[in-house]
Design brief:
Length: 183
């Protein structure tokens, strides 16, 4: 149906919700005790990607808090399949080191434009501006390192920094102002 209605499918496996029973009883669901579990993408998604992975009208964003899946599965899937994007799970991995590990893990095989850009949820509404700022700073630091290693020019880094926060999320989620396809 996603290939027909133009909506973007998002998958979020690899999270054990409400892990601690006493915290759940005291504070309710989604109160910060969700923990990572092993996530698998390549084998479980084989049927859908064989049918829709190269379909121009299908779009799927893969998220997880299982950091081992970034370079092992999500990055390579996003790098190969035009319809697959690597989602940035900042609402769980919202520390500078975790965000940096994500960026290094997926960019090597998926590139820059096959990531989702910063995505957050409104349960932590008051922290969203600070989290966006941190994400922008870390992405800028990553790009600066690539410039210092002569892997990007300053002009390319500036253009990518803008794309990270504007064009890439718009394109990934098919919002107005995004390009028709990621490059």
């Amino acid at each position: 149906m996603s290939s027909e209605d133009g909506l973007v499918m998002q998958l979020h496996p690899g999270v054990i919700r409400n892990h601690h029973r006493d915290t759940l009883a005291r504070f309710g669901p989604d109160s910060g005790h969700d923990l990572p579990d092993v996530a698998a993408f390549t084998r479980p998604l084989t049927p859908i990607l064989n049918d829709f992975g190269t379909n121009e009208t299908f779009r799927m964003v893969l998220f997880t808090v299982d950091e081992t899946a970034f370079s092992r599965e999500i990055g390579p899937l996003a790098g190969f399949y035009p319809s697959v994007y690597a989602g940035a799970p900042w609402w769980f991995l919202d520390t500078p080191d975790a965000i940096s590990r994500y960026r290094r893990s997926v960019t090597d095989s998926a590139g820059f434009t096959k990531t989702s850009g910063f995505v957050d949820d409104t349960r932590a509404f008051c922290s969203i501006p600070a989290r966006h700022d941190m994400s922008r700073r870390l992405d800028a630091g990553y790009l600066a390192a690539l410039v210092s290693e002569h892997r990007l020019t300053e002009e390319q880094a500036f253009a990518l920094a803008h794309r990270f926060v504007d064009d890439i999320p718009r394109t990934t989620f098919r919002l107005p102002g995004g390009t028709a396809s990621a490059s």
